[in-house]
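Lab channel / #folding
Pinned by the channel admin:
"Please post every new chain as: sequence first, then the structure tokens as a reply. Keep commentary short and put observations after the output so the thread stays searchable."

First post following the new format, from NK:
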Amino acid sequence: MNLSPAYRQLPAQEFAHRVGEAFRRMQACDLCPRQCGVNRLRGEKGVCRAGREAVVFSYGPHFGEESPLVGTFGSGTIFFTYCPLKCVYCQNYEISQLGEGSPVSVEKLSRIMLHLQKQGCHNLNLVTPTHFVPHILAALFRASRQGFSLPVVYNTSGYEALETLALLDGIVDIYMPDYKYADGEIAAKYSGARDYPEVAKVALREMQRQVGDLKISEQGLAVRGLLVRHLVLPAGLAGTEQVMEFLAREISPNCFVNVMGQYYPAYRAREFPPLDRRPTSQEYRQALEAARRWGLRLYQD
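Reply from TO:
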């Protein structure tokens, strides 16, 4: 099994080209499916409210992720501020919606990456990275030339533009997207993105094409592949059965999926019943049964 991160094998000229192309796209920003078209290089802001600079809420070893990412010394997580989605129940709404965080330069971001490696983290875990892909690529290119060599985890909502994923081909080692909804009306009501299901399907297919099924080393650490998260919502709002069917039929029968049961009402959820309650134990069991019925690799197993 090749344990070398993908970007270490990418020619420097190609890596630099990707960085330049990513920043060019900020001139009429289309990094996410919103395609706002604002000139972020001039400080204009679109739906996500990100401007010229990357904004980071926090960083450090994180032990709350799936065990193949956490290992012994934790996943080197960077939490980026803002988000292209507008989930009314976001459990990190202070970061994603209220904008808590501090601007960081590309140079500072690269130093953060090197610091996480020095702390012994097993990977670089980029949380909600989509709108800051140019800065991430530039910082990763800079850090890699100074000895950075951790595998890159792209930890995303699943709401991704195909053109942005193309910039990440051969750079990201592990994709960890959500697959939130099977129904566009539900996605529109609760996340402000009616096109979420179809966009996520296209994105997941591309992620699978790039990295394949999740591969785990002899030490129990994820080194490459796709790991899908699915948050169980009350009253079956997430469409779990259809989600699992899609993953099994169109992504891979060996797709590694974490069916998450930790939903609780946060942010504005109490304004949107039945999101004002947690899923029942029966609802969660039914979600697990759907994943098993489609033969997927369950994290809980």
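NK: The chain has a mean pLDDT of 97.
TO: also worth noting, The chain is about 35% helix and 15% strand.
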